[in-house]
Design goal:
Distance between the termini: 27 Å
CATH architecture of the largest domain: 3-Layer(aba) Sandwich
CATH superfamily of the largest domain: Response regulator
Number of strands: 15
Structural class: alpha/beta
Number of helices: 6
Helix content: 25-40%
Radius of gyration: 19 Å
CATH topology of the largest domain: Rossmann fold
Strand order of the largest sheet: 2-1-3-4-5
Largest sheet: 5 strands, parallel
């Protein structure tokens, strides 16, 4: 079942979006909708440590805070990078700000009936392209494991052991980082002789370190810094495009 969340502090808009969803989702597609009437309600859900939705419709201006919706989506991107985010706002001046986050569409509230179908189609297309190939497979003591690539924060090599660090747990394996990188997409890069990082989950990069939204930082080697910074900037320039 497709799980959808709508966050808007205007109850009329919440109803309008739900009605447009009914018009644009085919009868053969099973889905559920949860509504949130403000920043606090949605943030309380995120405090559980997960975001269980396939699609989130997010108002940008919630209450008196001009970009509170964008701040919430930063958390969604970290907890569930596969979640398809559709921003909804009548304030076009915030259109550029949303590019600091991963999203699929910016929907003008004045054109919901016209454009929601297109936004939904783009989100569903991205969801359909997600497959089991988005896992990293490895062995520990002759037992095979698979973990979602989007859950991996970084990998660290120490002596003859590599630690794969995810949002919730760690795995220690003998395989070298270079071999693991061959099975991972280009968002995973070597950032130090002992570290590789998933740039999709990095919140910032500063001189000789990258930082994640949870506050954790790992080092970037001097010889890697220019390449890592360039890759991070290039990747983020395409987010939402």
């Amino acid at each position: 079942m497709l799980k959808i969340a709508i966050c808007d502090d205007n109850t009329v808009q919440l109803q309008i979006i739900q009605e447009e969803l009914k018009k644009n989702i085919g009868e053969d597609l099973s889905y559920s909708v949860d509504t949130f009437d403000g920043e606090t309600a949605f943030d309380n859900m995120l405090q559980s440590g997960s975001c269980p939705y396939n699609i989130v419709f997010m108002d940008i201006v919630l209450g008196d805070k001009s970009t509170s919706g964008i701040e919430l989506i930063h958390k969604v991107n970290f907890l569930n990078p596969a979640c398809q985010v559709i921003y909804i706002s009548q304030y076009l001046e915030f259109a550029a700000d949303v590019y600091d986050t991963q999203h699929v569409y910016f929907l003008n509230k004045d054109r919901i009936s016209e454009l929601l179908g297109k936004a939904l189609t783009a989100a569903l297309k991205n969801i359909s392209q997600t497959s089991n190939d988005n896992y990293l497979y490895f062995n520990i003591r002759k037992k095979q494991y698979k973990i979602p690539q989007n859950d991996i924060l970084y990998m660290e090599r120490n002596l003859r052991e590599t630690t794969i660090v995810t949002r919730t747990e760690e795995f220690k394996i003998s395989e070298k980082i270079d071999l693991l990188l061959q099975r991972l997409p280009s968002c995973f890069v070597s950032c130090h002789r002992s570290y590789a990082v998933n740039l999709r989950l990095v919140s910032s990069i500063h001189q000789y370190a990258v930082t994640f939204p949870n506050g954790k930082s790992i080092p970037v080697g001097r010889t890697h810094y220019a390449d890592v910074k360039k890759s991070f900037a290039l990747m983020n320039s395409y987010i939402g495009s």
